[in-house]
């Protein structure tokens, strides 16, 4: 079982970003990116996990949550344009946390 909250990723990203430059920061950043990719995967999680360990599987497993209930996709072009138009109209004066 995996519990995932995108807000936690932002918090963890800031923690890694605040560390001094060096190999430790690179390793932690890589691990964070890999975990984020796994959590937000739109394809078979087993394939993502195997790729992390350098293995490749052509066929989806058919048993993970993504295989059993694939994410629904839709064209959000118009919604994105409206959101960006809103940002432009308020002169970019509000942050993402503004409701
Ligand atoms: Zn799968």
Automatic annotation (TrEMBL):
* Pfam (any one): RQC
Keyword ATP-binding assigned to the entry: answer is yes
Keyword ATP-binding annotated: yes
Give an example GO molecular function.
helicase activity
Q: Which residues form the ATP-dependent DNA helicase RecQ zinc-binding domain?
A: 6-68
Domain RQC, chain residue ranges per copy: 70-97
Query: What is the top-level taxon of the source organism?
Result: Bacteria
Enumerate the UniProt keywords alphabetically: ATP-binding, Helicase, Hydrolase, Nucleotide-binding
Family matches, as SUPFAM superfamilies: P-loop containing nucleoside triphosphate hydrolases
Q: What is this protein called?
A: ATP-dependent DNA helicase RecQ
Q: Which organism is it from?
A: Vibrio variabilis
């Amino acid at each position: 079982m995996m519990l995932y909250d995108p807000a936690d990723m932002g918090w963890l990203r800031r923690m890694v970003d605040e560390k001094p430059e060096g190999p430790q920061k690179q390793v932690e950043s890589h691990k964070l990116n890999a975990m984020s990719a796994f959590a937000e995967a739109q394809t078979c999680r087993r394939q993502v996990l195997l790729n992390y360990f350098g293995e490749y599987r052509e066929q989806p497993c058919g048993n993970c949550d993504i295989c059993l209930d694939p994410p629904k996709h839709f064209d959000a072009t118009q919604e994105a344009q409206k959101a960006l138009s809103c940002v432009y109209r308020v002169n970019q004066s509000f942050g993402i946390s503004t409701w």
